[in-house]
User: What shape does this take?
Amino acid sequence: MVPEEGLTSTTSLGPDWVLGPDGLRHRRAARVIVLDDAGRVLVVRGHDADQPDRSWWFTVGGGIDAGESDVEAALRELREEAGLELAPADLEGPVMTRAGYFHFYAETCRQDEVFFVARVPAGHVPTDAGWTDVEREVLDEMRWLSAAELRSQPYEVFPTALPDVVEQLAGGWDGTVRHLGEEHDD
Assistant: This one.
């Protein structure tokens, strides 16, 4: 029996994750590819509480709250996760979308993601002051990395196309929304 879409039940993921028609936890998310003027991207490294030895890099972002637009969510996540206060006009895009499937907190989840770009001067020092208790449990660090550094470091990178996207966007966005389709991260 497949649960009804939107049905909620107890989960460690949080109340914004609902069961979809496929039986997987699902939510919509806004993510931001933050680039500095040196062409580096701000990424967060985290791990799964159930798999602490597995670690990966990903962009700033998270779930879109009820009644919140994609842009509002992206700006809120920038403020909460990296200490960046930006305005809607500071975002480009959406530049990319994907449906990410991943294993987290002992559940397989689907997150439909929309990505924006924000450009900031080199030298911004991100802060974790806005991290939630759950984020503090599973997020390890934030760092500015170039596309080459993303490719050469030992951890997984999500979305997997991020190094190529960073290189393309460093020279400016051409207005094309890149659709990555489904990407299985586990």
